[in-house]
Amino acid sequence: MADTSLDQLPDKRVAARYIKGVTLGEGTYGIVFKALDTKTNQTVAIKKIRLGKHKEGVNVTALREIKLLKELKDPNVIELIDAYPHKGNLHLVFEFMESDLEAVIRDRNIVLSPADIKSYMQMTLKGLAYCHRKWVLHRDMKPNNLLIGSDGQLKLADFGLARIFGSPDRKFTHQVFARWYRAPELLFGTKHYGAGVDVWAAGCIFAELLLRRPFLQGSSDIDQLGKIFAAFGTPKPSQWPDMIYLPDYVEYQFVLAPPLRSLFPMASDDALDLISRMFTYDPKNRITVQQALEHRYFSSVPAPTNPVLLPRPAAKGEAVNNIPRPPDLISQEGPVVLSPPRKARRVMLFPGSEGNAYEDGTLLKHSAVTSGNTGGSTTQSKYMPMSVDVDALFGSKPPPRPTISSTDRSHLKRKLDMELEFQDSPK
Ligand code: ADP
Known about the structure:
InterPro entries: CDK, CDK7, Kinase-like_dom_sf, Prot_kinase_dom, Protein_kinase_ATP_BS, Ser/Thr_kinase_AS. The chain is of the alpha+beta class.
């Protein structure tokens, strides 16, 4: 659909076909801006990827993303419309998406009904099932990589870390997932993994939709495993025989799993059953995405909400975090995720700051229903839980993304260059 706001802009053509609009955000590899596609009169989002100064050029991750995306066409996978080099940068043209699932989850004005959650989960799993059918792992499933269009359709995006799996002689780098969504086999350093890593991450997203905050917020890989085991019990070797042979395996103190119902008091029995299957420790026994889609959770009442009827988040940039929390959300409050005892300490912000941060990354925002108690009470029902990266809050930089050596890069670039048919000159 054409965006009239773009019509008012001076005609800043980008590679003839696109009229440049506002900047939408800055990603890992460069800025993303809004544009008008004069060929189709559609609004698009163009990801401008800085190419290296050296001839070696195009970032391998970007090339990989292009190659995969060009092959993937599904209603629940973002469409790559075009790719072209321009003024020394690589431009990827995607369909424009209004929002993402993280914005939905964080918007305290939005109440998600069980049918809404089912709808978001169904779209997520449908997109993932399509990728897995094509032998492609996403590998970076998290709510801000699930974009939402104006028609309410959710689409998997940011395949920068995805890779075709199944080929022999391929060892995967395991440090690719955002930690909170990382499967235990990755945390234990497995070199060979499969579609189960995406299922685990989708389980984390399911949990996050129910709880309205990231489920397992580990501050390190060790802590992440601690949080997983506190939630689901320490796995016994009989439950996951291969575990003890994994490269980074360390023995954890045995803890029993609390009842799953106590973690998700608001979930239906069917939802709980599906969650338990998505969080199965042994990846060989973990439910597949296709099986998850066929699970009775999706056929039982309530039926998933029609995507066009799903609640929409506030427009980007609007302050939604300090909006008073509606009383009906309080009863949906999830439990505090269990942490190792040393993590239970609370970090207080200075008086007058906007909220109280917990060391495990949970920030509690004051809500209008709070009656004066700002001093760090543990009565969470009076606060609005918000999730933020505490490192970001205190100004430290996020950990660097994994890189590959220049030998690998030039080798892969040559390989991908041969596979990709790029046009040499700008359009
Ligand atoms: P990252 O590399 O950190 O995952 P991206 O480069 O994918 O980030 O995106 C940066 C920002 O640009 C996002 O936060 C989002 O706001 C915006 N964005 C990315 N893709 C789209 C799109 N298809 N439609 C609209 N906005 C987008």
